[in-house]
């Protein structure tokens, strides 16, 4: 029986908080059957380029706006786009301390032979979780029998009940979308997740926040990233970071706290 559940659209190489949310849940559901949002993060993110945030995009075929994510396809010439993206990421990070360990994984994920953007992204998320030793089961929303929920809240409640969950955790941006009392009436505790402010050593100061997990991995070993995965808070609760995290930071001085205006939010 799942105690906590989290639900998010599948994002390509998302920020650290996305993986924190996966790790915090007992079950994580990918909303692959939700409508694709052009201005969202399904097929784009940000990397470090000349010490500034640069948007990278995995281009899709033009199609109807109303289609869900799992009916959208990568563009016909994506093999060429994939090589362009690999060259760009290599250019940006070739001097990063963990480039030689991380870049083969990034190349393999970008070259994955799948044109469906939902399946392509799901594969990348699963592989990233394996690399970071995140063991939370990941399910597809499209595989669940939910009927026709009246709205977003009802959809989440049905998903939670499917897994006999008692708690739904969601990024704090969802506080305007979800009604805590409505969830309580349906036997669910609603809690909002917030990534704690952290920085790590990049090429130089000041720190450029809110970048893809690619950036985090290029500048941190797996053990450091695992420590960062615990740096989040849930509303009405203190930070989840463990006391021994401070000892870990003493061993890895590249990781430190930062002011609240550098919090990554998606």
List low-confidence stretches. 237-266
Biggest sheet overview: 6 strands, mixed
Question: In total, how many domains does the architecture comprise?
Answer: 1
Can you write the helix and strand succession as a string?
A: EHEEEHHHEHEHEEHHEHE
Mean of the pLDDT scores? 88
Structure report:
With 266 residues, the protein is α/β, with parallel strands linked by helices. It has one domain. Helix content is 34%, strand content 17%. It is built from 9 helices and 10 strands. It has helices at 16-24, 78-93, 99-110, 117-131, 152-162, 180-185, 213-219, 222-228, 244-251; strands spanning 4-8, 27-30, 44-49, 52-57, 138-140, 167-171, 189-195, 198-200, 232-234, 255-257. The strands form 3 sheets. Strands 5-2-1-6-7-9 form a 6-stranded mixed beta sheet, with helices on both faces. A two-stranded antiparallel ribbon has the order 3-4. Strands 8-10 form a two-stranded antiparallel sheet. Strand 1, helix 1 and strand 2 (27-30) form a beta-alpha-beta unit. Helix 2 packs antiparallel against helix 3 (99-110).
